[in-house]
Amino acid sequence: MAEEDRPERQAAPVTVKDAFAQAMEAYNAGRHGDAARLFEAIVEAAPDHAAAWENLGVARQALGDAKGAEDAYRRAAEIAPNNASPHFNLGTLLGSLLRTEEAAACYHAAVERDPNQPSALNNLGIALCDLGRYDEAQVAISRAIAAKPDHAAAHMQLGVLRLLHGDFLAGWSSYEWRWRTRPFQREARRYTQPLWNGAPLAGRRILLHAEQGIGDAIQFLRYAPLVAARGGEVVLEIPAPLLPLAGSLDGVAESIARGTDPLPPVDCHAPLMSLSRLFRTTIDTVPADVPYLRATAGPPSDLPSAPGQRRIGLVWAGNPRHRTDARRSIPPGLFAGLRSISGIRFVSLQRDRPAGETVALARALPLDDAAPLLTDFGATARIVSGLDLVIAADTAVAHLAGAMGKPVWILLPHAPDWRWLLERADSPWYPSARLFRQSAPGAWPAVVVAVERALVAQPRSPAHLH
């Protein structure tokens, strides 16, 4: 038979099982678009394939298609109503979108179907913490630890909950589990030198290294002089924007930017946020000798003068990449009501937001925009030093003002970060701080009204602003 007369060979049909394996291979290789297309083909051919629907949700979520991912997870849950997994995945999606009530309901549904699933229990605990339902959160987190005693994320979350309630000694211990969680293991820098155990240092060089955000670093820099007092020659490894401030901190021999390689010679090391445990800090023994950071010399501010007026810094939003930034940031338009207070000139210390926000607010308030001058935290500190008061969301600038001993009013969401504790209007970390709290999730208008009333009630003398 001539070659051209031979019948063509038919390729063997691709089975659903084969297609599923190919889709999983594509997803695991990071080809999320290919994976999504393959899972879509599977559910078109087999509409009741629950695992394909669920994994389609995972692929779509990785592609940033939140609506498509939600639809896929919900379809998977309909097909396999007794399966905990699609409820768990839907909970993680909704939690990332700050649809916290719905996320908690999904985790509840997952736990109902798999009562001893530690990750679902822990995520339920986190969601309940975000909702301010702390007693329920502790039950869920304790169940997660009972189900898996070495569940690092649950121990860390238990630490957060203990710290929030002021149980510092137990909280610091539990919070150390953070180093065993996957996010911290991925980001942690490896040091060949041993961890410091708090013993006298007798002249040894110790590296104190920052972790997490700039606000965290500012808060825990207060411990550097205490480490030096134990006989250590302190080397600080901190975010580069903080380096101009390091020279104002007592007891520091050398400062380097985070990620410097190679490191200068040191004998041991400690994470900044572990020093509170090593010094056995309680709520009554927080080292709060402020100021411990000071403005250093630099170019003068180009801000216009405001004779006879109080100069008040304003920050309404934090780092947009923070997990809960949408919850802690404040719609800037709410501050327009402060225009009725006479004798005040506001200074915007806001960065990392659309420029239009500041421009719009400046139409409503007597407001100077200092953002072009905020090249690093040394520059920010010089501007803050010339203000009478800082009003800020829970941001690094709030920590900076507190560390400088500057009067600072910190505006907090209903479920605050652990460091601000619960219910109180003051902070053991920053004696110059006054806390204004939401009474319910999203209740920022009432917080700003409380700030307005407090400003009206304050004496005009800047020295009395607190």
Quick recap:
By secondary structure, the chain is an alpha/beta fold. Helices cover 43% and strands 11% of the residues.
Radius of gyration based on Cα positions = 27 Å
Encode the helix/strand succession as letters: HHHHHHHHHHHEHHEHEEHEHEHEHEHEEH
Count of helices? 20
Based on DSSP secondary structure assignment, what is the total number of beta strands? 10
Mean pLDDT: 92
Unreliable residue stretches: 1-7
General shape: globular
Tally of structural domains: 3
Report the biggest beta sheet as strand number plus sense, adding barrel if it closes: 6 strands, parallel
How does this structure look, described?
With 466 residues, the protein is an alpha/beta fold. It is 43% helix and 11% strand. It has three domains: 16-181, Alpha Horseshoe (Serine Threonine Protein Phosphatase 5, Tetratricopeptide repeat); 205-278, Rossmann fold (3-Layer(aba) Sandwich); 310-464, Glycogen Phosphorylase B (Rossmann fold). Strands 7-6-5-8-9-10 form a six-stranded parallel sheet, with helices on both faces. A four-stranded parallel sheet has the order 3-2-1-4. α1 (16-28) runs antiparallel to α2 (32-45) and α9 (152-164) runs antiparallel to α10. The radius of gyration is 27 Å and the shape is globular. The termini are far apart. Mean pLDDT is 92; it is low at 1-7.
